[in-house]
Design brief:
Arc Repressor Mutant, subunit A, alpha/beta, Helicase, Ruva Protein, domain 3, 3-stranded antiparallel β-sheet
């Protein structure tokens, strides 16, 4: 079964880690302006003053998270007087979970049997000895948004960076939170074709040995990635296409392997979503009733599953992120159609 494959020392990959979602390049190309803006917002903390808050939005896979992590890394090299935290709210979506993760990143281990208020007190006591930059990624996935209010109230010198794909999430916040947050808005726009190709070229050069990629095959990856407006898809295609070539003992990644990789690409992979029966019901309804108002979708959804409108909205946001549905504003509210 394995005899026709390339031997271990004949791999096409020079460094497979470069092709991982979480890999952070030493230099993040084409996001220099945004990173400089981050630094400007954080700078007052270095002078023991209050920083500003940022609301960062834009479609998936265009460098929002990477740019933030890059600035955190630079800040950690610059000073030890500012605590830095990155928290993904998809994973930590309640007040308690976020506070527990802050304790974990602070290496504070005595959280067992402590209540939420007690954890908040512990976190505040530690952070208020210095300053803090706290990044809440996928902030629209929070089930309990009061954590934003609590951090604003209890942490004295800080910058909160809220990252989301949903620009309108800010409008849904309680007025008391918005009045304290008063964030600057920073939009990340999709990469153009030249930038998309440049990012993928860098990954290709670091991830593979010279001469491995056929130019036509690489152009196909860049074109498909630009079409989908998600760099993560392009990086996945680089890796998967090369794996297909290796499995055929090919020393070249040609167009046929890229086309095979595209055909096998999981359309939900980039959004980390698995469709359940409720998701499928929602999609089928919208397909049969294009440009449906959310109120009508909820009426049918509630009849079948008896769930809240908030649950439906969360599912629709998730399906939009997976690029399975799209919203269109109208005088009667948001209309939803499948893509």
């Amino acid at each position: 079964m394995f005899k026709d494959m390339l031997k271990q020392d004949e791999t096409l990959f020079k460094d497979e880690l470069v092709l991982d979602y979480e890999y952070l390049p030493k230099i993040l190309k084409y996001r220099e302006n945004q990173q400089q803006h981050f630094a400007t917002v954080i700078k007052p903390l270095l002078q023991k003053r209050q920083g500003s808050n940022l609301f960062i939005y834009g479609s998936p896979g265009i460098g929002k998270t990477a740019a933030c992590k890059h600035v955190l890394r630079e800040l950690e090299l610059e000073t030890d007087q500012v605590y830095t935290f990155y928290i993904n709210c998809w994973k930590y979506d309640t007040v308690y979970k976020i506070l527990a993760e802050l304790c974990n990143q602070l290496k504070y281990k005595w959280i067992q049997n402590k209540k939420t208020d007690e954890l908040l007190k512990v976190v505040a006591e530690i952070l208020n000895k210095k300053s803090a930059v706290i990044i809440l990624d996928e902030v629209d996935k929070l089930k309990e948004e009061q954590i934003v209010y609590q951090l604003l109230e209890d942490i004295y010198k800080k910058c909160l960076f809220l990252i989301t794909n949903e620009k309108d999430w800010l409008a849904k916040l309680d007025d008391r939170v918005k009045s304290r947050l008063l964030p600057e808005l920073l939009e990340f726009k999709p990469y153009n074709y030249k930038e998309t190709k440049g990012i993928l070229e860098e990954r290709k050069d670091y991830g593979f040995y010279p001469g491995v990629w056929d130019e036509e095959a690489f152009e196909k990856v860049a074109e498909y990635c630009f079409e989908k407006q998600d760099v993560r898809i392009g990086i996945t295609l680089l890796k998967n296409s090369a794996n297909l070539a290796e499995n055929k003992s090919s020393r070249k990644v040609s167009l046929e392997y890229v086309e095979q990789a595209i055909a096998k690409l999981n359309p939900f992979q980039q959004a980390k979503i698995e469709l359940d029966d409720e998701d499928k019901f929602i999609i089928d309804y919208i397909k049969n009733n294009p440009k449906s108002p959310i109120s009508k979708i909820y009426e049918e959804y509630n009849k079948k599953y008896e769930k809240s409108q908030r649950t439906l909205r969360r599912k629709l946001d998730l399906l939009k992120e997976a690029k399975l549905v799209d919203f269109e504003d109208s005088p009667f509210g948001s209309l939803v159609s499948t893509k």
